[in-house]
């Protein structure tokens, strides 16, 4: 499926206002409600729209500390990579895990209540991950800009 300009406008609006009604969406993109609904269903069926979620304010839920953790593994075999990836997905404080090109093998985005909480997460979970040879943690002082909207 190739996206046309209407599909792109639908995706742009839904990324910023996921709870918008079909009537409001159809008005915003200048399309009839039935045609708009069919397009959204098609975008969902084709996998362009993966999920609908509520984005929480980290401060309101007490997770105001963001830490980026660079992980270097002891090896690059499939077994080492698979064991690490399987284990890291079980840590609820890890929001993202990326396999990297560069000096680190993985980059994690971790949320914590504060530095003491991160120390506990590090001790209880991160330090016990299989295959880890080295870790470096970088604390975010302030979030300047953050979005979940992809350019379409």
Please characterize this protein's 3D structure:
The chain has 152 residues and is an alpha+beta fold. The protein has 2 domains: 5-45, Winged helix-like DNA-binding domain superfamily/Winged helix DNA-binding domain (Arc Repressor Mutant, subunit A); 65-139, Alpha-Beta Plaits (2-Layer Sandwich), CATH 3.30.70. The protein has 5 helices and 4 strands. The chain has helices at residues 5-16, 22-29, 33-45, 78-88, 115-124; strands at 65-73, 94-99, 106-112, 132-139. Strands 2-3-1-4 form a 4-stranded antiparallel β-sheet. α2 (22-29) packs across α3. The radius of gyration is 20 Å and the shape is elongated. The mean pLDDT is 97. One of its GO terms (molecular function) is sequence-specific DNA binding. Keywords: DNA-binding, Transcription, Transcription regulation.
In the CATH hierarchy, the third-tier topology of the largest domain is known as: Alpha-Beta Plaits
Which CATH class of the largest domain applies here?
A: Alpha Beta
State the order of secondary-structure elements, H for helix, E for strand: HHHEHEEHE
Going by helix content, strand content and strand pairing, the class is alpha+beta
Total beta strands: 4
Any low-confidence stretches, pLDDT <50, length ≥5?
none
Number of spatially distinct domains:
2
- Percent of sequence in beta strands: 15-25%
CATH superfamily of the largest domain: Lrp/AsnC effector binding domain/regulation of amino acid metabolism (RAM) domain
Strand order of the largest sheet: 2-3-1-4
Q: Summarize the biggest pleated sheet.
A: 4 strands, antiparallel
Q: Give the overall silhouette.
A: elongated
Count the helices. How many? 5
Rg of Cα set: 20 Å
CATH architecture of the largest domain: 2-Layer Sandwich
Report the helical percentage.
25-40%
| Head-to-tail CA distance between termini | 14 Å
Mean pLDDT: 97
